[in-house]
Amino acid sequence: MDVKRVKQILSSPADIEVTYNGASVWIDQLNEDGRTATVHLRGPLEERTIVDITELKEE
């Protein structure tokens, strides 16, 4: 995924399905470096992880 699409998803009111390593995630924020994002798994676990945005996939 690229920076432009991450920003579009973050500003969209729609529920857009995004996966990281096959797991469905929410994007919390695009980090200041512009190459990574903070995400967490959809569901009860709120553990946040910083990932490279190129590893995010829109389903």
From TrEMBL:
Q: What start and end residues bound the annotated signal peptide?
A: none
InterPro entries cross-referenced by the UniProt entry? SASP_SspH (IPR012610)
Q: What causes induction of this gene?
A: Expressed only in the forespore compartment of sporulating cells.
Question: Where found in the cell?
Answer: Spore core
Q: Indicate the family of this protein.
A: Belongs to the SspH family.
NCBIfam families in the record, alphabetically? SASP_H
Full protein name? Small, acid-soluble spore protein H
Highest classification ranks of the organism: Bacteria, Bacillati, Bacillota, Bacilli, Bacillales
| Gene name per UniProt | sspH
